[in-house]
């Protein structure tokens, strides 16, 4: 049961929650006692007794009035501290899970949807502790004391109060919960849709403006917000109706108590002063049940949010993690793929099928092919983001599946086409690879990436901010910064996944030439659809539909009819056509 799992999350904070329950019980009990004692004091004072006979009640009114505020503050402090500790731990678990699932399992989620699960859905779970379980537990304890006190004064009044509290605190919340399941069906999903639509609108803003698609996206966002507002209005209506019914039940208890109490006063079975206490006691108990109908709604909302959170937490691992990983073998490293078949999902065809590849220390290969040929899948297998379903991948003879995946990624590093550049300085972007790197090491990495000369011309040098997503850098500079970061990390094996995808032909050729020069002596896998500069690699592997269809050097493949030569001729012709257009 999903609520049971959420309760297990709160075990480390059980002591704080118990303190919150005790403080809440004392606060609410003080509120009820304040009303009861005040009713007795006013009624007794109307009889003009000696003032000294009222002193105990006067002091009690002051004590209960102060205690109510003090205990309420203590309850809020302890409860929120406990809830925030639970959420902090859960948020860390979700983040670590997202890290484990990236990049293989995440494409099934929209970015905005993931953001909603990580923020709004996790935040919603605090309502289980703060607005559902804690109010219910406090109300149960105080209600028992109020019924016992009313029954001691007049048994019939105690029974009346008990019936009213059952109706207001159990039957009405149950009915409210049933209605809430209909009114709030899809509320969490609609809220997530709004978040996803906003994130998509912000991320794709420039493209949407360029294609004049902003009005359509804004209209879709407005529709999503309207659906959310309608659901929230229905939810508020149900909550208001529940509160009204609870108040009505306790108001009815006041009249029934009055009807039962007046004859008891006439017969002398009940002192008249105590009748005021009994009549006002149901009204004092209104605070006990006021939040329970809303608590029933929160329970349904929490279930929806929890399902979305646990959908991420329970997602299967993209790779098998051994209970006792084998130790990482010592360098130098040789990577070998034998008969590897891999697919992204069980219902999809193999993205790689029967791949054999050997990467001894220092070897440099290029993997080329059309879109969908399996190049990115090969990178995922090499980085152990994806396990093959057949065949083996070994590192110095040790099977990848016997190694810790993080250990593998300390040997095999990735420099992707969309390597993230953070909105901070050049130096801090580089230190993501090695936080303890010295300035001299940063400059060496930039020099190897052919970026140091440009950095030295900047007034702030290494402390120059690069802007959001590297907005102050050109495409080639962003890619060279990513290259410098990979070099600084010191990976023995480096995988470059489409490093020149968004660059013009001249810049792409220069970047390819420089990254191959910078990685001399390291095992290098260059995954690209562009053939410029591949004369420098030891071997070119051509993929098609997940299979190796050609392999050899650039000179050999260009001289041989086949897919590589056709691709090279097409790109060469496009480059010539582009040059003619430019010169014109």
From TrEMBL:
Q: What is its main location?
A: membrane
Where in this chain does the record put each ABC transmembrane type-1 domain? 22-270
Q: Name one GO biological process term.
A: cell redox homeostasis
The UniProt entry lists membrane topology as: Multi-pass membrane protein
GO MF terms held by the record: ABC-type transporter activity; ATP binding; ATP hydrolysis activity; ATPase-coupled lipid transmembrane transporter activity
Q: Which Gene3D superfamilies match?
A: ABC transporter type 1, transmembrane domain (1.20.1560.10), P-loop containing nucleotide triphosphate hydrolases (3.40.50.300)
Keyword terms of this UniProt record: ATP-binding, Cell inner membrane, Cell membrane, Membrane, Nucleotide-binding, Transmembrane, Transmembrane helix, Transport
Could you tell me where this protein is found in the cell? Cell membrane
PROSITE patterns in the cross-refs: ABC_TM1F (PS50929), ABC_TRANSPORTER_1 (PS00211), ABC_TRANSPORTER_2 (PS50893)
Q: Indicate the transmembrane segments per the record.
A: 51-71, 132-153, 159-180, 236-263, 275-299
| Domain (ABC transporter): residue spans on this chain | 335-570
InterPro entries named among the record's database cross-references: AAA+_ATPase, ABC1_TM_dom, ABC1_TM_sf, ABC_CydC/D, ABC_transporter-like_ATP-bd, ABC_transporter-like_CS, P-loop_NTPase, Type_1_exporter
Q: Which domain of life is it from?
A: Bacteria
Cellular component terms per the entry's GO annotation = plasma membrane
Q: Does the keyword Cell membrane apply?
A: yes
> Which NCBIfam families does this entry report, sorted A to Z?
CydC (TIGR02868)
Protein name per its UniProtKB record: ABC transporter
Native organism is Carbonactinospora thermoautotrophica
């Amino acid at each position: 049961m999903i609520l049971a799992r959420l309760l297990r999350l709160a075990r480390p904070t059980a002591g704080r929650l118990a303190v919150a329950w005790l403080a809440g019980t004392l606060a609410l009990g003080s509120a009820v006692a304040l009303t009861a004692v005040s009713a007795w004091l006013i009624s007794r004072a109307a009889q003009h007794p000696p003032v000294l006979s009222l002193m105990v009640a006067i002091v009690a009114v002051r004590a209960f009035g102060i205690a109510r505020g003090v205990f309420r503050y203590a309850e809020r402090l302890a409860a929120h501290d406990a809830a925030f500790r639970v959420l902090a731990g859960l948020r860390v678990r979700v983040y670590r899970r997202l890290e484990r699932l990236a990049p293989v399992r995440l494409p099934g989620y929209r970015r905005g949807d993931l953001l909603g699960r990580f923020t709004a859905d996790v935040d919603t779970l605090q309502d289980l502790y703060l607005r559902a379980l804690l109010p219910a537990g406090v109300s149960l304890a105080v209600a028992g004391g109020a019924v016992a006190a009313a029954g001691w004064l007049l048994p019939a009044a105690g029974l009346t109060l008990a019936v009213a509290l059952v109706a207001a605190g159990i039957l009405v919340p149950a009915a409210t919960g049933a209605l809430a399941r209909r009114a709030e069906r899809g509320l969490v999903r609609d809220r997530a849709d709004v978040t996803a639509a906003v994130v998509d609108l912000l991320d794709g803003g420039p493209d949407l403006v360029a294609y004049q698609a902003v009005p359509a996206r804004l209209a879709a966002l407005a529709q999503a917000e309207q659906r959310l507002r309608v659901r929230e209005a229905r939810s508020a209506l149900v909550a208001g109706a529940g509160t009204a019914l609870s108040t009505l039940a306790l108001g009815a208890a006041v009249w029934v108590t009055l009807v039962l109490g007046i004859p008891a006063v006439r017969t002398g079975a009940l002192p008249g002063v105590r009748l005021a206490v009994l009549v006002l006691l149901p009204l004092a108990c209104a605070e006990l049940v006021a939040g329970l109908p809303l608590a029933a709604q929160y329970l349904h909302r929490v279930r929806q949010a929890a399902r979305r959170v646990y959908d991420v937490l329970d997602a299967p691992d993209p790779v098998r993690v051994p209970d006792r990983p084998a130790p990482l073998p010592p360098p130098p490293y040789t990577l070998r793929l034998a008969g590897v078949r891999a697919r992204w999902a069980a219902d999809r065809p193999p993205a790689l099928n029967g791949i054999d590849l050997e990467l001894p220390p220092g070897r440099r290969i290029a993997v080329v092919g059309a879109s969908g040929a399996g190049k990115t899948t090969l990178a995922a297998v090499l980085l152990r983001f994806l396990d093959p379903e057949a065949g083996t991948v070994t590192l110095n003879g040790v099977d990848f599946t016997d190694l810790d995946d993080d250990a593998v990624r300390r040997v095999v590093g990735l420099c992707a086409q969309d390597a993230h550049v953070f909105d901070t300085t050049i130096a801090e972007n580089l230190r993501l690879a090695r936080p303890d790197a010295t300035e001299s090491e940063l400059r060496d990495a930039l020099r190897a990436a052919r970026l140091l000369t440009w950095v030295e011309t900047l007034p702030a040098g290494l402390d120059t901010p690069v802007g959001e997503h590297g907005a102050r850098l050109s495409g080639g500079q962003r890619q060279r910064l990513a290259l410098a970061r990979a070099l600084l990390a010191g990976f023995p094996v480096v995988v470059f996944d489409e490093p020149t995808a968004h660059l013009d032909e001249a810049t792409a050729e220069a970047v390819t030439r420089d990254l191959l020069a910078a990685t001399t002596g390291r095992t290098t896998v260059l995954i690209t659809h562009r053939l410029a500069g591949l004369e420098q690699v030891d071997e070119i592997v051509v993929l098609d539909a997940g299979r190796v269809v050609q392999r050899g050097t650039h000179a050999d493949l260009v001289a041989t009819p086949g897919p590589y030569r056709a691709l090279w001729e097409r790109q060469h012709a496009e480059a010539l056509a582009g040059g003619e257009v430019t010169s014109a």
